[in-house]
Amino acid sequence: MTHFFEEKEDDLAVLKQILTTANSGDVLVVAKLIVLARMPEEEWINLCKTAEKGMNVVALNLNSTLQGLHISNESERIASRASTATLLELTGKAIKYVQTNPLFAQKKTPTGSLAGRPVDKDLHHRISLRLLAGESYSKIQKMENCGRSTISRVKNSMTVVKEE
Q1: Which stretch of 3-7, 60-64, 125-129, 130-134 has the lowest confidence by average pLDDT?
Q2: Within 11-147, where are the H helices?
Q3: pLDDT in tens, 39-94
Q4: Which of 34, 76, 126, 162 is 20 to 30 A distant from 53 in Cα terms?
């Protein structure tokens, strides 16, 4: 092992550094395949280009790629390259499917974030009135049949108006 890079919470700079220093025969080891699937498209293309030049990709959660860690002859190198090519092709197709499938698309908001349940404005209004009246979370929870997180969300969204 000549280089060791540690990913720290979506740090793409580390990945860019790996891809620029990778040579033919090097092995990129990732803990889970999902790490690769979350990459931006530009970095994904760079990864595929680097892999085409001879870098192998091993995902520790996929047994079929682990042979890439123990290459001792030419036939094993060819098998590992085929495994990497298949892994990247399948992952690329999965990424495109998730991004273009209408079932996945409908779960996103216009800003691209995942959407949850729509806000119950009437419930939020009633909760805000109870909070302004000074009622406790427990009492509001019982009276409105809602969770503490909903009450907290309403409280955090309330604005304070100061009269002068």
Answers
A1: 3-7
A2: 12-21, 33-37, 41-52, 74-100, 102-105, 121-132, 137-144
A3: 777 788 888 888 888 888 877 777 767 765 666 677 777 777 777 788 888 888 87
A4: 34
Angle between the N-to-C axes of helices 121-132 and 148-157, in degrees from 0 to 180, rounded to the nearest 10? 80
* Closest to 2 (Cα-Cα) out of 27, 19, 30: 27
How much is the pLDDT for 148? Answer: 93
Contact in structure between 67 and 83 (CB atoms under 8 Å) = yes
User: Do 116 and 106 form a contact (C-beta atoms < 8 A)?
Assistant: no
CA distances from 76 to 29, 67, 73 (A): 17, 8, 6
SS3 at position 28 = strand
